[in-house]
Amino acid sequence: MTYFCTLASGSSGNCAVYVNRRQRILIDAGKNTRYITERLRQLALSPADLTHVLITHSHTDHVSALPVLMKRTRACLVCSAKTYSAIASRLPLGVEKILFEPGEGITLGECPVRTFSTSHDAPGSCGYVLGSGAEQVAVCTDMGTMTGEIFAVIRGSAAVLLECNHDVEMVRTGPYPYPLKRRILSDQGHLSNGFSAKVAVRLCQTGTSRLLLAHLSAENNTPQLALSAVQEALARAGLEAEITLAARGELGQPVLL
Ligand SMILES: [Zn+2]
Ligand SMILES: [Zn+2]
Questions:
Q1: How far from chain centre, in Å, is Cα 216?
Q2: Is the pLDDT confidence value at 188 over 90?
Q3: Is the pTM of this model over 0.90?
Q4: Ligand 2 mean position, distance from CA 238 (Å)
Q5: Number of structural domains in the chain
Q6: pLDDT, tens only, 56-85
């Protein structure tokens, strides 16, 4: 059985797992090791079972658990060379690793993984497409924007973890200081509900049938706004998909592939 499941999602911590017959791959390690261990246990897994730990980028909400987690597992760390440079000093010595340049393809055991560069304010930031065919999942958070090049990599994925960070009006009228508002709304920040809704339509036109809306801002979004933006865009386009929200601080609903 192959499945994908989020363990946490949002600016307070991001973590997910992709499990197939041979590999048990953690994607990002936000929150802390105790939190991740507890959520893995709910899936009948433990850190020792992990084969690989993939990191998208060096922001705290994606790596905070890593220094301790890598002591509890023999999993291979997989990240871009620039991401590794940013986090290496905090890691235990002797961690096995696979480093790549975003855009390169890699193989983890028998699992093909494509990588793509993301326009986000962390060096070497990237996204992943894991598996192939009916088991293909794309991880698209902390995106900044979506380019045609990225879309060409993620298109056709059976399931997509898609960032729906903010509602543009809530950011504009909200209490954040102007520089922070500008960062969020820039092409190096996060995807808005409206933008992701358009991406969702294009994805579903290429065969995506499961969408997990992720990395919702606690201050500048609500689950209802994110859900309705995507649902309404799909309905207008005459498309259907199973849409779920990646829970902020608890295990998400596993997506069976
Ligand atoms: Zn980030
Ligand atoms: Zn993030």
A1: 12
A2: no
A3: yes
A4: 31
A5: 1
A6: 999 999 999 999 999 999 999 999 999 999
